[in-house]
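Hi D.,

Good news: the full-assembly prediction came through. Inputs first.
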Amino acid sequence: MSEKKIPYKIYLEESEMPKQWYNVRADMKNKPEPLLNPGTLKPMSFEELQGVFCDELVRQELNDTDAYIDIPEEIRNFYKMYRPAPLVRAYCLEKKLGTPAKIYYKFEGNNTSGSHKLNSAIAQAYYAKEQGLKGVTTETGAGQWGTALSMACSYFDLDCRVYMVKVSYEQKPFRREVMRTYGAKVTPSPSDTTNVGRKILEEFPGTGGSLGCAISEAVEAATGMEGYRYVLGSVLSQVLLHQSIIGEETKAAFKKYDIKPDIIIGCAGGGSNLGGLISPFVGEKLRGEADYRIIAVEPASCPSLTRGKYVYDFCDTGKVCPLAKMYTLGSGFMPAPNHAGGLRYHGMSSVVSRLYHDGLLEAVAVEQTSVFEAAEQFARVEGILPAPESSHAIKVAIDEALKCKETGEEKTIVFGLTGTGYFDMVAYEKFHNGEMSDYVPSDEDLAKGFAGIPSFPGNEVF
Amino acid sequence: MSEKKIPYKIYLEESEMPKQWYNVRADMKNKPEPLLNPGTLKPMSFEELQGVFCDELVRQELNDTDAYIDIPEEIRNFYKMYRPAPLVRAYCLEKKLGTPAKIYYKFEGNNTSGSHKLNSAIAQAYYAKEQGLKGVTTETGAGQWGTALSMACSYFDLDCRVYMVKVSYEQKPFRREVMRTYGAKVTPSPSDTTNVGRKILEEFPGTGGSLGCAISEAVEAATGMEGYRYVLGSVLSQVLLHQSIIGEETKAAFKKYDIKPDIIIGCAGGGSNLGGLISPFVGEKLRGEADYRIIAVEPASCPSLTRGKYVYDFCDTGKVCPLAKMYTLGSGFMPAPNHAGGLRYHGMSSVVSRLYHDGLLEAVAVEQTSVFEAAEQFARVEGILPAPESSHAIKVAIDEALKCKETGEEKTIVFGLTGTGYFDMVAYEKFHNGEMSDYVPSDEDLAKGFAGIPSFPGNEVF
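Then the structure:
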């Protein structure tokens, strides 16, 4: 098919939308390591996990053998409200850069939650409803996940309780109001509604909270109420499974026009978007059917893949969750407060970590100012205002396209545009005012984080 | 075609996108009255208008004979970045309401500017560029129009100077930063950069500004600089022409599935969205080809159609612009400060005014709290967070659907969902906190506004 026929936006028909999620673990020879009970250091059993998570989600979490899992019809119907997400040809960006490269992006910001998080939120809410639960609890920092979960729970008429890091609750009142619009109960964390919250408030009366504390409160709240479970927006294998809809749609859209991408780029925080985007393509690599260059982009201020250790670590700073084998900076690691947006997690999904460890993808770390420069350059020609997280991928896509300009190669590049930046204008303002810093942790800073990683036979960091 | 086959979202193919704007004035037997020079009370000539507006836009403003006007290819290419906008079947809302009515909405919020304003902004920027101009000036209040124009100017590498009402500049820093991201120079109005601004600052040192003042500054700035013109985001006939892309796409999408709407609903401020949505359908009515019930929805706090006078009036509070024949509350009328969002304009597009006067459309006024109730109801099931302006149309669409529930009629209702409410969370917060008021101007309040309408033979208000 001649290039001229490729539209600006490739939309799948509803009938072409994927009906199954793809579970990349099934095709991995080296499976991601199992979650461990921090007390016994034994793999977490179904029974241990079902007290915290919905039964079906536990099954998905533990399932590393079925390559395809049917998407229930009710979830597919919800997906139809905002999916298929367009695969956009960045004609204007290509022209602006003067590159022979062909650049595409999969845009996941076309829904009110403003990001890809909704893909998993609706699935998790559905299974909670199916199980006859009354509601779910979660934590949120920047607010993308909390917003997505609020929407999903509203759709299924499920109670939704969000513990929002107090400093974000106060500084991001708009995020809070969106969640309230969808009927969620939003509590600034630490709060006096949980034991762990009261304890922290007693110890640190003026604290602005942390994600670790909010997770602890959300887990305590869920396990302490009849008919509630805790849900999480990234890191877990079940989340990557749900997010595979991104990659499956991308693959189908490319197939429609007989296009094969050369380079696939995604931003990486906990791994939900990256894992979802790349899964089907990694599957082809694992099965020897095709080869792609895959690049994970992380912030230089929180460089879990490029500078972390591949060991078992706590998933939360409160250390209430199981241990996961992953690239980690240590659960006590905190990125500098001036770091904008998400991608602040100390670890990385076990699936992405394993794939990276086995050489199936590359990783690069980029600094904040260059990310916002790329974001603004992109916005001015493509018209979409990208989230800071997504802009990490934009930065590297532009870099790769400029390399093609030097070499004259007509590579096809695709990146994940995970969401919009409407609620991140404070960061854009800092960028415009030249007040953005490019802090990169020193080796000494990292050593402090590594020191908090649990040490046991086979899991020595130093 | 059976109903089951209608997808959640009807997308046109790029090849099906309209290539012409539709100029409803050509089909109107009673044409809208011409703009008058306030000094001579004679119709404004091409020469008089071209000092303020781009030549081609003046031609479009004066053209009430050509029914179709080609959309230049460059504008069509830009449109392809965010259009066709989906026509969405509100299956979830229908289910929630339990109505036999079929509800559709044309969603114009799928671009960073967040509203339909971009449809005209890109056209106006294009013609400015074609004329070899250096830049354009404009005013903005809430910020939707300023944002759209900034994006459009960035695309054509045109200087963009936005005079933003000072109180909005300070209270809506995020809107300001979006415009800066697109390279616009945003000045709080009144400012010391213009004579009129300096004069007002001297007289009222602490003023928060007004739209009327910002218009005056923008016009002075444009006419005082070589290579600049002034542009406007609503009210003018040229703007309705560009916005006809909304109605043309809606018509084409319905046609694809052989659907004929019974009721067409749009929110009405200056008339840009309403006029654009209904134009092609009104054209059919005018030509006797079809009949539709058309409803304009305005806020009860600023009821130009339902309680205004159909006379010549100033288009701006600063009284620097020509006189227009329209439904007006008087250029001195100011809606209560607690009124949320846009739709605050004292008058109404001449085209919409004429059509309303001739009985081609109905108008209803709705109160603020009921609008936000409808907005929240819609958001919770349809997933999109609507702008307060758009929610006026949602309110009446729901009302009409509930009437169908009573009568059992399976009417097809379509409304314009003009944009998203991401930057309106302060209003949502007031609504959640029960702090929203439903002020409706008394007859005395209106009389004060009417007193400012110019009186001359044939234009007596009292």
